[in-house]
Amino acid sequence: MATALISSLFASRHIVDRVQVADPGAAAREYLRKRWPVTCYEHAADAIKGMDAIVLAVKPQVLPVVLEEIHDLVTDKQLIISIVAGIPTSQIAAQLQANPPIVRTMPNTPALIGLGITGMYARVNCNLAQRELTQNLMESAGEVVWLDKESLLDVVTAVSGSGPAYFFYLVECLRKAGTRLGLPAEVAAKLALHTAHGASAMAVQSDVDVTELRQRVTTKGGTTEAAMEQLNAGHFEQLIDAAITAATRRGQELAGNEAHP
């Protein structure tokens, strides 16, 4: 995700003054240096010096190591932007000596191709300029939404963070059903994949609500209605609701927060 953000940032319309990156891997640093005009360091302590914003883009289990390295170097004026899944801002703040503004974000994997959407929450000590800086960064990889409650990021994770997997699963199911009913495997796969791609693009670009778009396809007494009746009989909506609820609860467990949003 860090590489995706760097790529999107340099490809965007935003002016990039200076980007410094920390990565313990020499090969990774060499790759970044060759592709973009970034300065690379082995240690985070070196990379954050003099920077207006510090982006934490590591796996959750690695975060304590990074924060231990920089805990007494971060200043009150440096903005912390976290894209670390499941880690609340209070946990980050507790491991820093200063009291910097922190924005927690939850992007999803389509950000890798510039089509992501990111949920964001800013602590009260973030000013407007810092919120705009964060928005500019994350908008380079797609759309953004701001939340007033940090706990709602668990719901964002369940809906959009994990959401691509649900759509991939649906494409898998469409492909398997088409193959079982006689379509050549490669034909079923292409039909399923491009139907999903076209329908999602149509929904995003249309000024018509998705409910109406669905109803327009569902002709009375037609094939779509027959399929929808089976989905409703199988309690499809309730299954999706239960799945999102389960993912939200798991996010709360991973964050050590049992409180419901």
In a few lines, what is going on in this structure?
About 50% of the residues lie in helices and about 10% in strands. With about 260 residues, the chain is an alpha/beta fold.
Ordered list of secondary-structure elements with their pairings:
Blueprint (H helix, E strand, L loop, with lengths): L1 H10 L8 E3 L3 H10 L3 E3 L2 H4 L5 E4 L6 H8 L8 E4 L6 H6 L7 E5 L9 E7 L5 H12 L2 E5 L6 H9 L1 H18 L4 H21 L4 H8 L5 H11 L2 H19 L7
Parallel strand pairs: 1-2, 3-4, 4-5, 6-7
Antiparallel strand pairs: 5-6
Structure notes:
With 261 residues, this protein is α/β, with parallel strands linked by helices. The chain folds into 2 domains: 156 residues, Rossmann fold; 92 residues, ProC C-terminal domain-like fold (Orthogonal Bundle). 52% of the residues lie in helices and 12% in strands. The chain has 12 helices and 7 strands. The strands form 2 sheets. The chain has a 5-stranded mixed sheet with strand order 3-4-5-6-7. The longest helix is centred in the C-terminal third of the chain and has 21 residues. The two termini are 26 Å apart. The model has no long low-confidence stretch (mean pLDDT 93).
